[in-house]
Amino acid sequence: MKEALQVRVGQVSYQFHTPIIINEYHTIAGPLEKNGALTAYIDTFIDDLYDGEKTYENCYKKLICDGISPLLKKHPDVQLLFTGDLLNQSTPTHLALTNRALTPITFDHACANFGLSLLYGALSIESQQQAAVFAGTMSHFAAVEKQFRFPNEYGQQKPPSSQTTVTGGGFCLLSSNGTGPHITGGTLGAVIDEGFSDPYNMGEAMAPACFHTLLAHFKDFNTTPKDYDYIITGDLGSVGQNILYDLLREENYRVNRNQLIDAGCEIYNKNQPIFSGGSGAGCLSLFLLSKGLKVYFKKPTRALVVATGALHSPLSLLQTPHIPTIAHLIVLESK
Amino acid sequence: MKTDTIKTIAKKHDPKRPLAKNCLMSFIFGGSLCALGQMISLFYLYFFDFSEETVGDPTVATLIILTMFLTGWGVYDKIAQVAGAGTMVPVTGFGNAVISSAIEHRNEGFVLGVGSNMFKLAGSVIVSGVFSSFVIAIIKTLLA
Amino acid sequence: MVISVFVAFVVGGLICTIGQLIIDVFKQTPAFMLSLFVVIGSVLDGIGLYEPFIDFAGAGATVPITSFGNGLVHGALKEAEQSGLIGVVIGMFQLTSAGITSAIVFGVIGALLFKPRS
User: Fold this and answer.
1) I need a labelling partner for A247 at 20 to 30 A (CA). Which of A38, A46, C40, C68 fits?
2) How far is B50 from chain C (nearest CA, A)?
3) Where are the beta strands (DSSP E) in A37-167?
4) CA A142, CA A135: separation in Å to the nearest integer?
5) Do A162 and A308 belong to one domain?
6) Hey, are the CB atoms on A152 and C118 less than 8 Å from each other?
7) Is position A5 within any domain?
8) Does residue A12 form part of some domain?
9) CATH of the domain at A60
10) Is the domain of A132 the same as that of A212?
11) Do residue A129 and residue A196 come from a single domain?
12) Interface contact C107-B118, CB threshold 8 A
């Protein structure tokens, strides 16, 4: 009998041997993102945060519906969607997929959902359980604001370290044939708590998780940042990105400043009122599936994509003032 | 890596809040709201039958009506981002906390949405105020 | 008249600035700051300082949330003078009812008229 190729690498990493390709993708975004820096690369936009629906939550649902529909129409035989959103029990996702022949597998890793979705989508193809799967995430500014912070009309003053939830996101089709960048590996993160508790500074809470996952990856694959063209992080914002840079330098990993790309910093223009950057489950998927694939992965590239997430809830934060965070990583290569 | 090192690095990159600007803005906006209140009081004193003692009530009601429109049009939160405590401390801030919660939860119905959520932000102020006032008033009454 | 508006501006502005300092320097939440102000207002009235403060600053003292604490204590004490200890419970909301009632009424009207926008 032929020995199966080793998928598990080191402590927490995976190496894929079948080609897992991001074939097709569809992105959708809101009004603020329309005036941002990625306008030319995003497929469709909604004009306001209701988009004809009665509530923000329904609009969230509609965004997911509109995001996945073009892909589902072309590939009606795909069975699984790896995803996860930011509201209770991923209700927008589940409502959006009502009466459709698609099983959602929702994760609760907040903004890290996209990384985990891609990784698990890839694993299910690698293990030959599925021929093709969907993966993707979506977020909606006002619905998330309502759940995690204050009413949208409440007069609060956000400090400069706070981040703005992205309205929008994207979905993609992973399969073992076709053209596009390959997912060749990945590293799963663990829950990290360094004692940060400021919900208006998520960058500092998430940067250590990103750092830990990167270290684990470099150790498992025996690589250094030099081996990759880019390290694309999810939604650290400018604050978290600076912290990550310093943490890597502190650990004697030489990273180039231009090597670090943060989706939260790329989506908006400098003059938009977004404080330290974008965040949310849809932040990384919106960037990666628009400008990311259309610009950075057009030429031969090997990059790490790290999705970072904060795992607190408004209730948990009041009971135990800590923000646990997590980060999942995939290796994305284009030839 | 030690937590202390991470904390030090994180602290270094925490963007400073613009303290001087925030204080100046809260002074200007908060002061203007109080000056507006004084003008409304004077208006009611001169044109209606109110005394120095009772003029506070219509003044507060007028300011809260104003707040309702500013909140409903989506202007109040934009002003508050600049004004900070200048729009929180005056009674308009109390009104905004109540009205914004009411508007936000109208989609959950008028009983369980608006009714139960209206005081979710302003409730803390009422509770702490009533409890401390109760203690103080009891002590004063017993001493008198 | 103009002087009274000016005094209200300066005094009210200063109270708000103290609030801003509590948020930014002592890193407290706005809810804590507002609750603290209400408690300070009721304590000040308890020791008899808030009445002269209103005489001096007018709306500069009545518009900030501190006057809510003052109103609560004042109403309670006024009723307690007439009906004894139980008056503290009866009179608590007597003077502050304008603020609370109008906030509730216009909150409901606001919810009828407007829908949330970001």
Assistant:
1) A38
2) 14
3) 44-45, 80-83, 103-106, 132-139, 164-165
4) 23
5) no
6) yes
7) no
8) no
9) 3.40.47.40
10) no
11) no
12) yes
* A156·C30 Cβ contact <8 A: yes
Domain that holds residue A273: 182-334
B73-123 per-position pLDDT tens digit: 999 999 999 999 999 999 999 999 999 999 999 999 999 999 999 999 999
Q: Does the beta carbon of B122 lie under 8 angstroms from any beta carbon of chain C?
A: yes
Burial tier of A192 (Cβ tally within 10 Å: 0-12, 13-18, 19+): buried
Q: List A residues 303-332 in contact with B (Cβ-Cβ < 8 A).
A: none
In B, which residues are within 8 Å of A158 by CB distance? Answer: 81
Give yes or no for C53 touching B (CB within 8 A): no
Q: Amino acid identity, residue A177?
A: N
Q: Are A311 and A191 in contact (CB under 8 A)?
A: yes
Last residue of a domain, one of A107, A142, A175: A175
Residues A200, A162 within the same domain: no
CB-based contacts of C96, cutoff 8 Å, min separation 6: C68, C71, C72, C75
Q: Cβ separation of B59 and C118 shorter than 8 Å?
A: no
Domain ranges for chain C: 2-113
Quick check: B9 contacting C, CB < 8 Å?
no
Interface test with B, best of C106, C112, C117 (most B CBs within 10 A): C106
Specify whether A143 is located in the same domain as A201: no
pLDDT in tens, A23-50: 899 999 999 999 999 999 999 999 999 9
